[in-house]
Design brief:
Length: 158
């Protein structure tokens, strides 16, 4: 999939706010990996729970404000978030999908739905609530979201 010049401009200039945002956004994907680690070597369910809690907390801070500005600028400049998705989200999503797939293979994650669907269900819900300011991303909400998503459709023990 090609990236238009407008999209490339948006992706390359990933700190659009006037003060150029916090230094960690200028560092790009490497910083995301450091601040929001997700490891394929950790126990998959625990790794996702930890990552999701850190991600939700980061969205409440500078990362969230800059993320909204970056997405807004991408939409204004190119009408699309494709460049942002390609530059930042694809690597994180692929890693998350591998962690979930590992959890399914080990039996730690009971759902047999595709790992991509499970990842998107979790992170899509988080981002939707963040983007539109719907309710707080509390630890109980996040825990229930993950546990329900990873279940096989049976009731999840609290």
């Amino acid at each position: 999939m090609g990236v238009s010049p407008g999209e490339r401009s948006c992706a390359n200039r990933h700190t659009p706010i006037r003060d150029h945002g916090p230094a960690r956004m200028r560092a790009g994907p490497v910083t995301f990996r450091q601040e929001l680690p997700l490891s394929e070597s950790d126990e998959p369910v625990r790794a996702i729970h930890t990552h999701v809690r850190r991600y939700a907390a980061a969205l409440r801070g500078d990362l969230g404000r800059v993320l909204l500005a970056v997405l807004g600028e991408c939409m204004v400049r190119s009408g699309s978030t494709a460049a942002f998705t390609e530059r930042y989200l694809a690597e994180r999503r692929n890693l998350g999908v591998r962690v979930i797939s590992n959890g399914q293979s080990s039996g730690a994650i009971r759902s047999r739905r595709p790992p991509e669907a499970l990842y998107d269900q979790i992170f899509g819900a988080i981002f939707y609530r963040f983007l539109f300011g719907l309710d707080e991303l509390s630890k109980p909400y996040l825990t229930d979201l993950i546990d329900t998503t990873f279940s096989d459709g049976q009731a999840v023990d609290a």
